[in-house]
Recover the amino acids of this structure.
């Protein structure tokens, strides 16, 4: 019932919108100037309605995602709801970094778009894809595959032939000493997903 | 993160550094298997399966292994733990482990891996060996996470406790069906606002329907200075009668 009415109204609404925008073009220029700061303010406000960080948890029953925002002592866990209109809910995976755009405030925050927060490749490195990795493994060339996940994960199941060097170990003073002495050897690092 | 390590390797002078961003999930999605370490095979909280024949198994096998031969595996799904988070490690002859890995993954097991155990090599390396018949049943008990509480302890607290409080963070709709009589109810969404009404001196043990929201709530509580643990279990209530199981 409601849908039908909505459908009937839609063409009308579109027409109205078209008329409105058409009219604006004929308006004196100053109207456009007036609108500009308003648009800017709107953009600024929108920028605020974004959480970036690691997903702490997700409940499909309560349709809630919690995400850790900020660093160190300032880190806070924020809650956002999601609904059937939320795009990219599949990117809200516990332990992965995500960018959540939302509307509403406080406990009425509802996610509109969820995107994975992709890792930036550090200087001097490039990405390798699965087929390339498989080709490298089959090539007989020398390479060292490094599993950078926490040690427990490495033990549970690692890509065959990997060595495990987790981030804390690598960050230690002599962490790099665990890598081959020959600095020309192909190194491939990986962890638990594209975040 | 792999990128952190890759960056450090480049800084240390390595010239050919790549990052496999798709990582382990991408690797498995492409149909490839992962291998368990020897340490994990020996000490991990796993279900270890020996895919060889009964005769070979009884003559000697990796300690803790159950025998389900490759021919029987297809029909053995019900013998495996219902909890799909149980890490299942398989070993056998030739490509059997790889095939078994795919079968088990097809059942929805989240943490399958292959023990690349060549039994002869395992024996030769002086690793421990067991002989004899396979145990009747596969038993796997999940180890609790850092802030998890056992079902038994939770049940006790739910009946009332002097220094602990059971907190139900399900929605109002869910609670309308029933709840633990002595549990406090605050829907997860309202927790931030109502946190101050909780007793500071008591440990708050949180439950929901599965554990996902309970974990979120418990983290919130600990961040706010409360002592808190949570229950990972299925909770179904009908009036004041609640059924709790893993």
């Amino acid at each position: 019932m409601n849908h039908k009415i909505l459908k009937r109204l839609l063409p009308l609404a579109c027409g109205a919108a078209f008329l409105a925008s058409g009219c604006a073009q004929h308006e004196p220029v100053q109207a456009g100037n007036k609108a500009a700061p308003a648009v800017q303010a709107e953009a600024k406000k929108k920028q605020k309605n974004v959480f970036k960080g690691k997903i702490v948890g997700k409940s499909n029953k309560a349709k809630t995602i919690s995400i850790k925002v900020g660093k160190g002592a300032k880190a806070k866990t924020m809650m956002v709801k999601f609904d059937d209109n939320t795009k990219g809910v599949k990117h809200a995976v516990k332990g992965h970094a995500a960018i959540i755009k939302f509307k509403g405030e406080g406990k009425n925050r509802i996610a509109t778009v969820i995107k994975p927060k992709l890792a930036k490749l550090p200087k001097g490195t490039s990405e390798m894809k699965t087929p390339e990795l498989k080709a490298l493994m089959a090539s007989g060339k020398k390479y060292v595959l490094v599993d950078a996940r926490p040690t427990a994960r490495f033990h549970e199941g690692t890509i065959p032939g990997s060595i495990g060097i987790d981030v804390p170990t690598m960050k230690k003073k002599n962490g790099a000493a665990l890598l081959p002495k020959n600095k020309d050897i192909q190194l491939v690092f990986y962890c638990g997903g594209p975040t | 993160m792999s990128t952190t390590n890759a960056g450090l390797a480049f800084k240390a002078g390595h010239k050919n550094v790549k990052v496999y961003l798709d990582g382990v999930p991408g690797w498995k999605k492409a149909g490839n298997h992962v291998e368990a370490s020897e340490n994990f095979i020996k000490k991990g909280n796993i279900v270890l399966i020996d895919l060889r024949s009964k005769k070979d198994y009884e003559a000697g096998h990796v300690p803790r292994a159950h025998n389900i031969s490759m021919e029987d595996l297809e029909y053995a799904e019900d013998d495996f733990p219902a909890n799909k988070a149980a890490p299942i490690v398989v070993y056998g002859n030739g490509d059997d482990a790889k095939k078994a890995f795919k079968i088990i993954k097809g059942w929805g097991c989240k943490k399958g891996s292959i023990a690349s155990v060549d039994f002869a090599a395992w024996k030769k390396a002086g690793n421990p060996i067991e002989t004899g018949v396979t145990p009747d049943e596969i038993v796997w008990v999940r180890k609790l996470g850092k802030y998890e509480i056992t079902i038994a302890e939770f049940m006790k607290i739910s009946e009332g406790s002097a220094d602990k409080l059971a907190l139900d963070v399900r929605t109002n709709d869910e609670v309308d069906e029933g709840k633990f009589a002595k549990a406090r109810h605050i829907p997860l969404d309202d927790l931030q606002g109502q946190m101050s009404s909780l007793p500071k001196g008591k440990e708050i043990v949180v439950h929901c329907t599965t554990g996902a929201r309970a974990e979120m709530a418990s983290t919130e509580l600990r961040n706010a200075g409360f002592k808190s643990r949570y229950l990972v279990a299925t909770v179904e209530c009908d009036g004041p009668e609640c059924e709790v199981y893993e």
Notes: The CA atoms of residues 15 and 116 of chain A lie 37 Å apart. Chain A touches chain B through 62 residues (CB under 8 Å).
